[in-house]
Amino acid sequence: MRGARADRVDLAEPLAPAPLSLPLAACISVVIPALNEEKRIAEVVRHVLADPATAEVIVVDDSSIDATAERARQAGARVILSSMLGKGSSMRDGLEVARYELIAYLDGDLAGLRPGLVSDLCRPLLRGEADFVKARFGRSGGRVTELTAKPMLKVFFPEVAHFAQPLGGIIAARRSLLHSLRFEEGYGVDIGLLIGASRAGARLAEVNIGSLENDSQPLSDLTLMANEVSRVIYAHARQMGRLHVEQVMAMHEMQRQAAASLELVLTRRRGRQRLLLLDMDGTLTEGRFVVDLARATGREERLRPLLDQPDDDAATRSRRIAELFRFVHREEFERVARQTPLRPDAIVFINRMRRAGFMVGVLSDSWFVAADILRRRVFADFALAHLLQFDNEVCTGELRLNPAFLDDSGHLASVCKSHVLRRFRADTQPPRVRECWAIGDNLNDLGMLTAADRPFVIQPRSPVLTGVPNVRVVSSFTELLEQVPQAAVEAPVSSA
């Protein structure tokens, strides 16, 4: 690895105006990842387009349920739909369609922008002084920056510890460098790019762009943000041989599993009174994830006798199947989950339900490592599934049943998706949930369908499901689109 350089560019004051010889012709692609930013996105786009250095503005819409895409397009931006829920995916998607060598990333909720921001941010690139630029702005770093990111950088990456806002999303870089970097999926994407650029030997710079405002993260999101940031820093440190404590990897696994808890999901309901629960295998997807994984790892013959054993309860069957995938690397689970075919129009249906005020969740008897990727592929709000255990990113074959699927006694024989629905109804956070829809396809969805206000069965695999009171049998998500209620007057905003 080449030695990293971290050049500090005028930390105290904003850059002085560029000399006349500096080329300010339109030569920069500005990429703005956006999720439900209708309030400010048009203002941001117009402001950026007014900068003489801006050649194009690309807004990457994360399947917003408000007018973000329409307002961005009307303001002059090129709007594309993200390939997957999450800021990192959106940033990468924008990079792939950008036409120019210099790329600037901005947030869609910024206010108080001063003229020439893009030119100022990219000036070290235009002058040939840097390959990667981080913005510094007037306000101090937030709680996660000060309490998590900065202390960890001082320990593991002191060469970049001087950056004032290491978690800030306002950056600029050369396309060639960005193509070589990893875009993390969660809140760790910005710190990951900074460390990755340093590790690549890029010339780093920091530019003061004055003061600005953006929306702060809800308190409930700060823990998840801190976990993601620390995970990314630890992962880079380990890859560089700067970390030798294996217990830290176990902590990473605990942090991932925390995202699968119903308690965290309930904190993100944010006033929504409508709930849609979707089965994963055979409902959202055309097949079964575990079958696809077995085929990909050469375990198909050994899996076949374990599936749908009538004498096994759900917990026993799940554990036996989990043991089959011992020693499979996490990346293989994630790769298969990204490639599993979705049913047509699933994304369109979910987006319209979210616009109608529904909180949308994916429930699965499979594993959270796969279910969370599927929920991000369809832009759902949350996923709940059982927890497959990993040690140093390798499957141990051990399974922990998600408590959300158990009754209050915690008895293993009570594993059922209906308990998730019941707990949503019991949530005392006002306003209470008043309407629950459920969609499934097999007997393991029976309890959930029976408990729902409006149950739907998509291409049922068992005739028993058609006998559920009030159930409606449909052939596709295209047919389900006819059932979507009118959008709520003010649909609450969800979070990735």
List the keywords.
496 residues, alpha/beta, Spore Coat Polysaccharide Biosynthesis Protein SpsA, Chain A, Rossmann fold, 2 domains, 8-stranded mixed sheet, 7-stranded mixed sheet, 20 helices, globular, disordered C terminus
Structure description:
With 496 residues, this protein is an alpha/beta fold. It folds into two domains: 5-216, Spore Coat Polysaccharide Biosynthesis Protein SpsA, Chain A; 262-483, HAD superfamily/HAD-like (Rossmann fold), CATH 3.40.50. Helices cover 37% and strands 18% of the residues. The protein contains 20 helices and 15 strands. The strands form two sheets. Strands 1-8-6-7-5-2-3-4 form an eight-stranded mixed beta sheet, sandwiched between helices. The chain has a seven-stranded mixed beta sheet with strand order 12-11-10-9-13-14-15, sandwiched between helices. Strand 10, helix 17 (368-377) and strand 11 form a beta-alpha-beta unit. The two termini are 34 Å apart. Residues 1-23 and 489-496 have low confidence and may be disordered.
